[in-house]
């Protein structure tokens, strides 16, 4: 089941979109502006984002730009009242994959959502194997034997970064810039907290370990002969 985050400051429109998505079999998360959307993505994996543009705090274009600059590749569908060619151009340049103008036909929206998800699945090169474990970028899961662990977005990106470059030392600042780049309020302790959570959740996995390099940062090392 695909998870879709709907970011819209109008509660009635947000509810309408959610109801149609849920009735079509999708799992739906909600946010009322860009800042809340980023907080939701801290704790949940999402497969597609639907966002308005004109919202308080971080608007839809800023949100889209921030996500693309931070390496998020899931499809983004902008739904907005802004209808000029220049508005659409700005949306696509920010990194959106599709653009719809309000009022939106819900059936057409569902068709576009299905197409975006299908395209993302086809083009995604999403597996990383480390010993006997498999990291799946699309699902943001870690599979070890029969055990499958789903990780929040930031934890998964952090783990994937470390395991993609075994034995390479990453400073806290490097990790902050690459994974939390849009969040200027994050501090070094943020990385430490996420590393601690990863170690706890993956304590049963023996194929690798996340090593603290005193005074520098972190690295991932494969265990045994792997």
How would a textbook summarize the main sheet? 5 strands, parallel
Helix/strand structural class = alpha/beta
DSSP helix fraction? 40-55%
Mean pLDDT: 89
- Taken from the alpha-carbon principal axes, the silhouette is elongated
Task: Work out the number of β strands.
Answer: 12
Assigned CATH superfamily of the largest domain: Response regulator
Query: What would CATH call the class of the largest domain?
Result: Alpha Beta
- The rounded Rg comes to 19 Å
Roughly what fraction of the amino acids lie in strands? 15-25%
Order of strands in the sheet with the most strands?
Answer: 2-1-3-4-5
| Domain unit count | 2
Q: What's the number of helices?
A: 8
- Do you know the CATH topology of the largest domain? Rossmann fold
| Intertermini distance | 34 Å
- Residue stretches low in confidence (pLDDT < 50, at least 5 long) are none
Secondary-structure element string: EHEHEHEHEHEEEEHEHHEE
CATH architecture of the largest domain: 3-Layer(aba) Sandwich
What does this structure look like?
This protein has 226 residues and is α/β, with parallel strands linked by helices. It has 8 helices and 12 strands. It has helices at 11-23, 34-43, 60-69, 85-94, 106-123, 153-164, 172-179, 188-201, and strands spanning 3-7, 27-31, 48-51, 76-80, 98-101, 127-130, 133-136, 141-144, 147-150, 170-171, 208-213, 217-222. The strands form 3 sheets. A 5-stranded parallel β-sheet has the order 2-1-3-4-5, sandwiched between helices. It has a 4-stranded antiparallel β-sheet with strand order 6-7-8-9, with helices on one face. The chain is elongated, with a radius of gyration of 19 Å. The mean pLDDT is 89.
């Amino acid at each position: 089941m695909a998870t879709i985050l709907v970011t819209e400051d109008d509660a009635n429109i947000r509810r309408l979109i959610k109801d149609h998505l849920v009735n079509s079999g999708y799992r739906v998360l909600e946010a009322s502006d860009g800042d809340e959307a980023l907080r939701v993505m801290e704790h949940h994996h999402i497969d597609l984002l639907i966002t308005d543009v004109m919202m308080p705090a971080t608007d839809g274009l800023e949100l889209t730009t921030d996500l693309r600059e931070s390496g998020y590749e899931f499809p983004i569908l902008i739904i907005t009242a802004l209808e000029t060619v220049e508005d659409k151009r700005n949306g696509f340049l920010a990194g959106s994959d599709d653009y719809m103008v309000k009022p939106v036909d819900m059936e057409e929206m569902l068709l576009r959502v299905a197409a975006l998800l299908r395209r993302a699945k086809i083009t995604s090169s999403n597996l990383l194997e480390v010993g006997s474990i498999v990291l799946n970028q699309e699902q943001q899961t870690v599979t070890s034997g029969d055990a499958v662990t789903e990780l929040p977005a930031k934890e998964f990106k952090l783990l994937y970064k470390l395991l993609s470059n075994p034995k390479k030392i990453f400073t806290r600042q490097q990790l902050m810039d690459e994974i939390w780049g849009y969040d200027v309020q994050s501090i070094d302790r943020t990385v430490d907290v996420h590393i601690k959570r990863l170690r706890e959740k993956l304590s049963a996995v023996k194929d690798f370990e996340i090593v603290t390099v005193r005074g520098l940062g972190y690295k991932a090392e494969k265990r045994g002969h792997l």
